[in-house]
Structure formats: structure tokens, C-alpha cells
Amino acid sequence: MEKLNLSIKNFLTNSGLEKGFNQQKAVTIWSGVVGEKIAKNSKAEFVEFGVLTIKTKNSTWRNELQFKKKDIIKNLNKELGQNTIKELRFI
Prior knowledge:
This protein is 63% helix and 19% strand. By secondary structure, the protein is of the alpha+beta class.
């Protein structure tokens, strides 16, 4: 199984798809990175050009997440292993 993981990683890197793959991965890991409380009140929608768009339950959560934006970006990129996410956009 280790060889398969390495082969896939090499393919993504060599074909230039790694960045796009990591951007999409940010959507799937959102709830694990931000925790249960935030995940219940927000949802990662999509990533475009390093900007992760987050749909929030209401304006209160949108405001709260604005204050935590730097830490969230830092934690997402730490989990992804590189600086994939440059900005968060809350809607």
C-alpha cells in the first residue's frame, strides 16, 4: 500500500495536479481541522485560486470566524503539508 500512495503522490506532483488536489482536500478536512462546534455552524464549499469559501450558519458565525481566520488558515495548511490555502471567504 505504501508504494501505491507514493505512486499517486508522484503522479500528482509530476502532472501538476498536486496543488488542485490539496485545495480540494481542504474542503474534506475542514470539520476535522476546525472542530465539532465550528463544523456544525459552517461548511467548506469550494476552493478557487487558494481561496477557501466557507458557508456559515448566520452572520454571527461569519463574524466569529473572521477573528479566527489566521489560525484556521495556519491549521489547514499544517494539515495539508504546504501553504495551499491563502485566504478564507465567508458567505
